[in-house]
Design brief:
Strand content: 5-15%
Strand order of the largest sheet: 1-2
Oligomer: single chain
CATH superfamily of the largest domain: Large-conductance mechanosensitive channel, MscL, domain 1
Number of helices: 3
Length: 145
């Protein structure tokens, strides 16, 4: 029975790690975002494109064969799905690009703040010397710091 406890405790550690939780949140938000983009495309963009093009994509079909049970290719739905994909990809690209630019600017500011000084000024002769120096190489004064 200790094998089961070890397995479940290991599984619990895995689930509670930050990156797994981040991934779960990302999947949930991604699903919600997909429904928003689908609605944008089907309810707003497709009718507007149909207004200019003369037809709504979702109704484009081709009947294969004849009779009541003939198969129907709904290629308009495929066009709508492609448009959904392109809109989603564009929005994600813009978001990732914006986040990357923000991170670059933020990390550059942090790097500048974190840099420790490597030199100091001699209080006697005002020469620039190494930060760890105990004696000035220029005036040979002993430094108390």
């Amino acid at each position: 029975m200790s094998k089961n406890n070890g397995f479940f405790s290991e599984f619990k550690k895995f689930i509670m790690r930050g990156n797994v939780m981040d991934m779960a949140v990302g999947v949930i938000v991604g699903g919600a975002f997909t429904s928003i983009v689908t609605s944008l495309n089907q309810d707003i963009l497709t009718p507007l494109i149909g207004l200019f093009g003369g037809t709504d994509f979702s109704y484009l079909t081709v009947t294969l064969g004849s009779g009541e049970n003939a198969p129907v290719l709904a290629y308009g739905n495929f066009i709508t799905a492609v448009i959904n994909f392109l809109i989603t990809a564009l929005v994600i690209f813009v978001l990732v690009r914006t986040i990357n630019r923000f991170n670059e600017r933020f990390s550059k500011k942090e790097e500048k703040k974190e840099e420790a000084p490597t030199t100091k000024e001699c209080p006697y002769c005002k020469s620039t010397i190494a930060i760890g120096a105990t004696r000035c190489p220029h005036c040979t004064s002993e430094l108390s710091e």
